[in-house]
Amino acid sequence: MFKLRSAGHPAVVLLDLKLPKVDGLEVLEQIKSDPELRAVPVVMLTSSREEQDLVRSYNSGVNAYVVKPVGFAEFVAALKELGLFWVVINEPPPGTVGDPKLQKNI
Fold first, then answer.
1. pLDDT tens digit string along 33-45?
2. What ranges in the chain are assigned the alpha helix state H?
3. Who has greater pLDDT, 63 or 101?
4. Which CATH class is domain 13-103?
5. 45 pairs with which residues across the strands?
6. What ranges do the domains of the chain cover?
7. Which of these, 3, 30, 62, 84, could form a disulfide with 57 (CB 3.0-4.6 Å)?
8. Considering just the CA atoms, what is the radius of gyration of the chain in Å?
Protein backbone atom coordinates (compact mmCIF):
# COMPACT_ATOMS: atom_id res chain seq x y z
CA MET A 1 0.00 0.00 0.00
CA PHE A 2 2.84 2.41 0.79
CA LYS A 3 4.99 1.59 -2.26
CA LEU A 4 4.01 4.78 -4.07
CA ARG A 5 4.79 7.20 -1.24
CA SER A 6 7.79 9.50 -1.45
CA ALA A 7 11.03 8.74 0.37
CA GLY A 8 11.28 9.53 4.06
CA HIS A 9 8.70 9.35 6.79
CA PRO A 10 5.95 11.80 7.73
CA ALA A 11 6.13 13.65 11.05
CA VAL A 12 2.50 12.67 11.73
CA VAL A 13 -0.33 10.90 9.89
CA LEU A 14 -3.87 12.29 9.99
CA LEU A 15 -6.22 9.41 9.24
CA ASP A 16 -9.99 9.12 8.91
CA LEU A 17 -11.93 5.99 9.85
CA LYS A 18 -14.19 6.25 6.85
CA LEU A 19 -12.12 6.25 3.67
CA PRO A 20 -13.57 5.69 0.18
CA LYS A 21 -11.95 2.34 -0.66
CA VAL A 22 -10.46 1.02 2.58
CA ASP A 23 -11.24 1.12 6.29
CA GLY A 24 -9.08 3.60 8.22
CA LEU A 25 -8.38 0.95 10.86
CA GLU A 26 -6.90 -1.30 8.16
CA VAL A 27 -4.56 1.51 7.14
CA LEU A 28 -3.66 2.09 10.80
CA GLU A 29 -2.86 -1.59 11.31
CA GLN A 30 -0.64 -1.57 8.20
CA ILE A 31 1.23 1.50 9.44
CA LYS A 32 1.74 0.05 12.92
CA SER A 33 2.85 -3.33 11.55
CA ASP A 34 5.60 -1.74 9.40
CA PRO A 35 8.85 -1.56 11.45
CA GLU A 36 9.88 1.64 9.64
CA LEU A 37 6.57 3.42 10.23
CA ARG A 38 5.31 2.17 13.59
CA ALA A 39 6.91 5.07 15.50
CA VAL A 40 5.18 7.68 13.30
CA PRO A 41 2.31 9.16 15.33
CA VAL A 42 -1.14 8.57 13.87
CA VAL A 43 -4.06 10.85 14.72
CA MET A 44 -7.53 9.53 13.93
CA LEU A 45 -9.36 12.62 12.66
CA THR A 46 -12.94 11.52 12.13
CA SER A 47 -16.58 12.48 12.44
CA SER A 48 -17.38 9.39 14.53
CA ARG A 49 -18.21 9.87 18.19
CA GLU A 50 -18.99 6.16 18.60
CA GLU A 51 -17.28 4.67 21.65
CA GLN A 52 -16.57 1.44 19.77
CA ASP A 53 -14.65 3.38 17.08
CA LEU A 54 -12.65 5.17 19.77
CA VAL A 55 -11.81 1.91 21.58
CA ARG A 56 -10.95 0.04 18.37
CA SER A 57 -8.71 2.90 17.24
CA TYR A 58 -6.72 2.98 20.47
CA ASN A 59 -6.55 -0.82 20.56
CA SER A 60 -5.09 -0.70 17.03
CA GLY A 61 -2.35 1.74 18.04
CA VAL A 62 -3.64 5.23 17.27
CA ASN A 63 -1.82 7.97 19.19
CA ALA A 64 -4.75 10.39 19.39
CA TYR A 65 -8.44 10.43 18.46
CA VAL A 66 -9.98 13.75 17.43
CA VAL A 67 -13.60 14.26 16.40
CA LYS A 68 -13.72 16.68 13.46
CA PRO A 69 -15.35 20.00 14.27
CA VAL A 70 -18.42 20.71 12.13
CA GLY A 71 -17.60 24.27 11.07
CA PHE A 72 -14.85 24.94 8.53
CA ALA A 73 -13.10 27.62 10.64
CA GLU A 74 -13.10 25.33 13.67
CA PHE A 75 -11.78 22.46 11.53
CA VAL A 76 -8.89 24.60 10.23
CA ALA A 77 -8.09 25.77 13.78
CA ALA A 78 -8.08 22.17 15.03
CA LEU A 79 -5.68 21.15 12.23
CA LYS A 80 -3.33 24.00 13.12
CA GLU A 81 -3.34 22.99 16.77
CA LEU A 82 -2.74 19.34 15.88
CA GLY A 83 0.17 20.31 13.65
CA LEU A 84 1.64 22.54 16.34
CA PHE A 85 1.39 19.80 18.96
CA TRP A 86 2.78 16.91 16.89
CA VAL A 87 5.51 18.81 15.04
CA VAL A 88 6.62 21.43 17.58
CA ILE A 89 5.54 20.50 21.12
CA ASN A 90 5.61 16.68 21.12
CA GLU A 91 8.91 14.93 21.88
CA PRO A 92 9.24 12.16 19.27
CA PRO A 93 11.02 8.86 19.86
CA PRO A 94 14.78 9.04 19.15
CA GLY A 95 15.66 8.37 15.52
CA THR A 96 12.27 9.37 14.09
CA VAL A 97 11.57 12.18 11.64
CA GLY A 98 10.74 14.72 14.35
CA ASP A 99 13.89 14.00 16.37
CA PRO A 100 15.77 17.34 16.68
CA LYS A 101 19.09 15.50 16.28
CA LEU A 102 18.00 14.40 12.81
CA GLN A 103 16.76 17.88 11.86
CA LYS A 104 20.38 19.10 11.74
CA ASN A 105 21.03 16.71 8.87
CA ILE A 106 17.97 17.67 6.83
1. 999 888 889 999 9
2. 24-33, 51-59, 72-83, 100-103
3. 63
4. alpha beta
5. 66
6. 13-103
7. 62
8. 14
